[in-house]
């Protein structure tokens, strides 16, 4: 996770410049994205809250993820990542959110979702972006790469021109 402190610093500066707050919803990282953010002094100026929703029940209880969605698609899925991201916004005062759900290993993988598979969700004004990545290495490497990707990608997305506000639902992107 060598790049996480630098990425968190850049993210902090950008969020503050934009006057926005961040919320996180984490499963496989167990709060590591939040920790990278709150390691910075003054993070309360731009970091609103983090949800560690490791169990399926926590995803439902804290973020409002429909249990049927988890049953149908699995916790490690685009649908659940998107629902976690939306839930983080709904259950916070943040304007920006990131969610991660994946298989950190060394066990728990399958042919369809091997160890290292991580789904990300990013909520920004007017859009909801989701994507999947597959990281190599052991548990620590997968979790570290997940944190760095979450911060780096959120930073990239925040630097893109804003999409117009969607009147009914966030626009699809990804």
Determine Rg (CA atoms, Å): 15 Å
Quickly give the CATH architecture: Alpha-Beta Complex
Number of strands: 6
Gap from first CA to last CA = 25 Å
Question: What percent of the residues sit in helical stretches (DSSP H or I)?
Answer: 40-55%
* SSE topology string: HEHEHHHEEEHE
Backbone shape: globular
Biggest sheet strand order reads 2-1-3-4-5-6
Mean pLDDT across residues: 92
Look at the structure and name the CATH superfamily.
CinA-like
Percent of residues in β-strands: 15-25%
Number of helices, where a helix is a run of at least 4 consecutive DSSP H or I residues:
6
CATH topology descriptor: Maf protein
Structural class: alpha/beta
Runs in which pLDDT lies below 50 for 5 or more consecutive residues are 165-174
CATH class: Alpha Beta
Structure, explained:
By secondary structure, the protein is an alpha/beta fold. It has one domain: CinA-like (Maf protein, Alpha-Beta Complex). It has six helices and six strands. Strands 2-1-3-4-5-6 form a six-stranded mixed sheet, with helices on both faces. Helix 1 packs parallel to helix 6. The protein starts with a helix and ends with a strand. The C terminus is likely disordered.
């Amino acid at each position: 996770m060598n790049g996480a402190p630098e990425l968190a610093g850049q993210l902090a500066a950008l969020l503050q410049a934009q006057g926005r707050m961040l919320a996180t919803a984490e499963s496989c990282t167990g709060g590591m994205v939040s920790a990278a953010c709150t390691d910075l002094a003054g993070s309360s100026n731009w970091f609103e809250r983090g949800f560690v929703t490791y169990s399926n029940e926590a995803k439902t209880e804290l973020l409002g993820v429909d249990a049927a969605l988890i049953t149908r698609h699995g916790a490690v899925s685009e649908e659940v990542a998107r629902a976690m991201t939306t839930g983080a916004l709904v259950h916070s005062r943040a304007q920006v959110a990131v969610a991660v759900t994946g298989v950190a290993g060394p066990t728990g993988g399958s042919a369809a979702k091997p160890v290292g598979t991580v789904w990300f969700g990013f909520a920004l004004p007017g859009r909801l972006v989701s994507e999947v990545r597959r990281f190599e290495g052991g548990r620590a490497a997968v979790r570290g790469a997940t944190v760095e990707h979450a911060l780096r990608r959120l930073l990239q997305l925040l630097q893109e021109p804003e999409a117009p506000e969607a009147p009914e639902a966030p626009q699809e992107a990804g």
